[in-house]
């Protein structure tokens, strides 16, 4: 399902997974090195992750020695792994619903093509950003021997198209 997410959401989920699996022995410099990011970028993503975890009454706590743990809001007690994994799945679904790549794929499914200008206006993105998302969607489609034409509609065998959208909807758990 991560393949349908925008890049920033993938980074957030990678950080959360690392914090869950490596706590309490992980620090910002360690995470930055592990994911080949600058420490400032990692710190910014952790701040965003803290905001995203608030609805689940969770927080990312940093102790005196700089180690990071996932805790209940207002406490320093570690959160159990089973609950952490449930929150991880819920966040992934939340990010999926915000993902412009996923929205572009749903537009292809529902309308047969993606109108560049309409999509850019609806998602508040530039033409250049649309092109980056289009390239990522093309990469996903290529895995199923499909492609996009210049009008941004799918090219390929009908059976492959059905298989792709079945995989998309099944993997994402999308229901509406």
Count up the domains. 2
Spell out the CATH superfamily of the largest domain: Winged helix-like DNA-binding domain superfamily/Winged helix DNA-binding domain
Please, what is the average pLDDT?
88
Find the structural class using helix and strand composition. Answer: mainly alpha
Number of helices: 8
Report the principal-axis shape. Answer: elongated
Strand order of the largest sheet: 1-3-2
Based on the model shown, name its key terms:
8 helices, three-stranded antiparallel beta sheet, BglG_antiterminators, Arc Repressor Mutant, subunit A, transcription regulation, Mga helix-turn-helix domain-containing protein, 2 domains, elongated, 176 residues, mainly alpha, transcription
Architecture overview:
The protein has 176 residues and is mainly alpha-helical. The protein folds into two domains: 2-97, Orthogonal Bundle (Arc Repressor Mutant, subunit A), CATH 1.10.10.10; 99-172, Arc Repressor Mutant, subunit A (Orthogonal Bundle). Helices cover 61% and strands 10% of the residues. The protein contains eight helices and five strands; from the N terminus they run H-E-H-H-E-E-H-H-H-H-E-E-H. It has helices at residues 7-22, 28-34, 39-53, 81-98, 100-111, 116-123, 127-142, 158-172; strands at 26-27, 58-62, 67-72, 147-148, 154-155. The protein has a three-stranded antiparallel β-sheet. Helix 1 runs antiparallel to helix 4 (81-98). The longest helix is centred in the middle third of the chain and has 18 residues, at 81-98. It is elongated. The relative contact order is 0.12. The mean pLDDT is 88.
């Amino acid at each position: 399902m991560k393949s349908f997410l925008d890049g920033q959401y993938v980074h957030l989920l990678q950080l959360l997974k690392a914090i869950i699996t490596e706590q309490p022995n992980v620090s910002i410099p360690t995470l930055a090195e592990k994911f080949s990011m600058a420490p400032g970028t990692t710190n910014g993503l952790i701040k965003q992750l803290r905001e995203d975890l608030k609805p689940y009454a969770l927080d990312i706590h940093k102790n005196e020695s700089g180690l990071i743990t996932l805790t209940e809001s207002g406490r320093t007690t570690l959160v159990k792994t089973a609950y952490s994994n449930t929150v991880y799945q819920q966040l992934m679904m939340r990010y999926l619903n915000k993902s412009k790549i996923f929205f572009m794929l749903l537009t292809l499914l529902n309308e047969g093509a993606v109108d560049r200008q309409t999509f850019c206006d609806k998602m508040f993105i530039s033409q250049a950003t649309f092109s980056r998302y289009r390239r990522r969607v093309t990469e996903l489609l290529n895995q199923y021997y499909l492609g996009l034409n210049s009008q941004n509609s799918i090219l390929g065998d009908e059976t492959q198209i059905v298989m792709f959208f079945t995989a998309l909807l099944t993997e994402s758990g999308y229901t509406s």
